[in-house]
Amino acid sequence: MIRCMIVDDEQHAIDILEHYVRQTPYLELVDSSTHPIEALQVVAAGKVDLVFLDIQMPELSGIDFIKAINGKARVILTTAYSEFALEGYELDVVDYLLKPVRLPRFLQAVQKAMAVLQPAGAVPATEAEDDYLFVKTESKGKLLKINLADIDYIEGMKNYVAIHRGGQKTLVYTSMKELEERLPQKQFMRVHKSFIIPLSRITGIEGNLLRLQGVGAEILIGENYKPDLMELIRNKMIK
C-alpha cells in the first residue's frame, strides 16, 4: 500500500485526485492540503510515501517544496503548464501530469510510482496494476475497465486499437505502441505490427501462423517479431 498526499492550492483539483485515489486499491490517502507549508510538516514526519504536488502555488512553489522535503517522499507533479516539465524531471520526480488530469493517465503515473517505491521482487497484495487497464473507448468521455484475463488478442486498426474479448470487439483510441508499453511483458507479446497476444493463450504455431485458445482466427506472426517469440517458445520446450 502506498501512502499518498495531495497538495494543491485549488480545492477542485484536490477533489478530482481524491476521487481517483479512492478508486485505486493500492493507494491510501493520508491527507490533502491547500497549504504547502502545512503539508511539509506531514511529509517531514515520515507519514507519506508519495505526493501529488501542484507546481504553481502562492505560498510555496512545487519546485521549492520538492527541495524542502529532501527526498522524504516521491513526487508526481500536477500542473496546467507543460513548460515546467523539464525542471521537474531534473529534480527526479516520478511523473508529470497535465491538468485536467484523466484517470488512465493518473493510473499510468501511479504504476511508475509503484515500480519506484516497491522493493525489488515485492508484489502489491491486490496485484491490481497487473489485472486491468482503464481505456478510452470510441464514445466521447467514456472510460472502460478491461480485465487483462479476458483479452483474447489485440488488433491494430488505423487510428484505433481493437481489443477482442469473448467474441466481442472494443475499439480504443490509442496506438499499438502505447498499449504495448502499458501491458505486462510477462503476460503479453507483440507478434506482428497489427497484433498483440496473451502468451497464456498460445496453443500452437505452424509456420508464420499462431493459434490461440478460444480464438477461431489464426494470428499472423511478423518476421520482425518472430525471433523473440521463438526464443520464448524454445525456453519452454522439452529438450
Short recap of the structure:
This protein is α/β, with parallel strands linked by helices and 239 residues long. Helices cover 28% and strands 31% of the residues.
Task: Please provide a written account of the structure.
This protein has two domains: 2-117, Response regulator (Rossmann fold, 3-Layer(aba) Sandwich), CATH 3.40.50.2300; 134-236, OB fold (Dihydrolipoamide Acetyltransferase, E2P). The protein is elongated. Strand 9 and strand 10 form a beta hairpin. Mean pLDDT is 84; it is low at 119-129. The protein has a five-stranded parallel sheet, sandwiched between helices. The chain is of the alpha/beta class. The protein has helices at residues 11-22, 36-44, 62-69, 85-90, 103-117, 176-182, 226-236, and strands spanning 2-7, 27-33, 50-54, 74-79, 95-98, 132-136, 143-147, 153-157, 160-165, 168-172, 188-192, 195-198, 202-206, 209-212, 219-220.
Can you identify the CATH superfamily of the largest domain?
Response regulator
The count of β-strands is 15
Helix and strand succession?
EHEHEHEHEHEEEEEHEEEEEH
What's the domain count?
Answer: 2
Would you tell me the overall average pLDDT?
84
Biggest sheet strand line-up: 2-1-3-4-5
Helix content range of the residues, please?
Answer: 25-40%
Could you tell me the radius of gyration in angstroms? 21 Å
Features:
15 strands; OB fold (Dihydrolipoamide Acetyltransferase, E2P); 2 domains; 239 residues; alpha/beta; 5-stranded antiparallel beta sheet; DNA binding; Rossmann fold
List the topology elements:
Elements lengths: L1 E6 L3 H12 L4 E7 L2 H9 L5 E5 L7 H8 L4 E6 L5 H6 L4 E4 L4 H15 L14 E5 L6 E5 L5 E5 L2 E6 L2 E5 L3 H7 L5 E5 L2 E4 L3 E5 L2 E4 L6 E2 L5 H11 L3
Parallel strand pairs: 1-2, 1-3, 3-4, 4-5
Antiparallel strand pairs: 6-7, 8-9, 8-12, 9-10, 11-12, 13-14, 14-15
Keywords: DNA-binding, Phosphoprotein
Pfam families: LytTR, Response_reg
InterPro entries: CheY-like_superfamily (IPR011006), LytR-like (IPR046947), LytTR_DNA-bd_dom (IPR007492), Sig_transdc_resp-reg_receiver (IPR001789)
